From TrEMBL:
This is TetR family transcriptional regulator. Residues 10-70 form the HTH tetR-type domain. Residues 33-52 bind DNA. Signal peptide: none annotated. It comes from Pararobbsia silviterrae. The keyword Transcription applies.
Length: 233
């Protein structure tokens, strides 16, 4: 009996998350109440509060379901014992692009995050967590690029911090553009070509060399970070 009760609770939790995903996608996060989700899922508000503290907690659980092994791959680029950190970086980008293009649920949840999530007061915790994740991802990308420089895979004078800002912006920008105009960007088939173009920039752009003229990037010491839009951590 206890096992069946546990299974039923898990089924209810999944139904709530599935329903929230579709209602958020249709109405937007700020215009969706927990009552809306409860009615659509055929459960009580009490059932929702049994599984989730509030709407932001439910949103985070929904987002967690579509996460990829991003952290593990990024860590591999940083590993000093990794002989090909640049290829591992490429693997990260390919995984995100191809994995999103081939997974309707992941694409739908990212669409909610990018375009249908207004970070009002009740979603402040979500915004804080995602901006922290973005900052951490950029720093790890910079460390991975430095590892590639040390292995002779990238120019010795590459500004890794500036390149990481470009890399992270490329990742989120490509996803956002594809979500808005999937008929204009063949992400599944041309991801490799887009990544090749980015890596060409890392190798050849004078603006990504140490000492290039221009203001310091937000990641540079002593420069406070500018507010950023949420995106893929």
């Amino acid at each position: 009996m206890a096992r069946r009760t546990k299974e039923e609770a898990q089924e209810t939790r999944c139904r709530i998350l599935d329903t929230a995903e579709h209602v958020f996608f249709e109405k937007g996060v700020s215009r969706t109440s927990l009552t809306d989700i409860a009615v659509a899922a055929g459960v009580t508000r009490g059932a929702i509060y049994w599984h989730f503290r509030n709407k932001s907690d439910l949103f985070e659980a929904m987002f967690a379901r579509i996460k990829m092994p991003f952290e593990e791959l990024i860590e591999a680029t940083i590993d000093l014992g990794e002989p090909d950190p640049l290829q591992r970086m490429r693997d990260v980008l390919m995984l995100v692009f191809e994995g999103t293009a081939s997974n309707p649920q992941r694409a739908r949840v990212l669409d909610i995050l990018y375009f249908k999530c207004e970070f009002t007061e009740d979603m402040g915790v979500v915004l804080s967590r995602h901006t922290d994740a973005m900052r951490d991802a950029r720093h790890k990308m910079a460390a991975g690029l430095r590892n590639a420089v040390a292995k002779g895979q990238l120019p010795h004078d590459l500004d890794a911090d500036r390149a990481a800002v470009m890399l992270h912006g490329f990742l989120n920008g490509m996803l956002a553009d594809w979500l808005l105009t999937p008929d204009q960007i063949d992400l599944a088939r041309k991801a490799s070509t887009y990544i090749d173009a980015l890596f060409d920039m890392l190798h050849h752009s004078p603006a990504l060399r140490l000492g290039a003229i221009g203001e310091p990037d937000a990641m540079s010491p002593g420069v406070p970070p500018r507010p950023s839009s949420p995106g893929l951590g």
